[in-house]
Fold:
Amino acid sequence: MGPVFTRKACTCGWTGFYTNTEASFNAVVVEDLLHLAMDAYGVGRETLADEELVEAFLDSCPDNIGMTKITAPQVYNYQGKKPEDWGVSGFVLIAESHISVHTFPERGYLNVDIFSCKDFDTDAVERDVLKAFNAEHVKVWLMERGTDYDSPRALYGAMVTDRVGLMAPKRDDQ
Structure:
């Protein structure tokens, strides 16, 4: 008898297919990973330079979209080699993955990324970014991410290859 596929969800809301096979392991076909990428334009220089604003946005965003914050936001002022590359960058780790913000004050725009194993209200994020940063407009990309495997055997092979690479002993002579 072949593998039996069952759809299940983990505690964070991630959903995938689990299967039992002859090797008696649980294999997963990864799906339902959502990545929101947003660029906001027409934002004032002072707003984009405001580290406290970026931190406040990152602090409130997880709660606003039903996520679980597991770290305090980390926010840094970056000074690039080119004057127009400076800005404020920050991120917050959430149980479901992460949220990041990168601002470019000299260019008048910012990037927001949310990667999650749980669905969330992308329209609410758009409204929050427009309001918090007083942006004129945004461009939004939604990507469903994940990896599909043709069979549990293919998944198992990929998993073993990945794990062996992580566990390979480091050689002192290299």
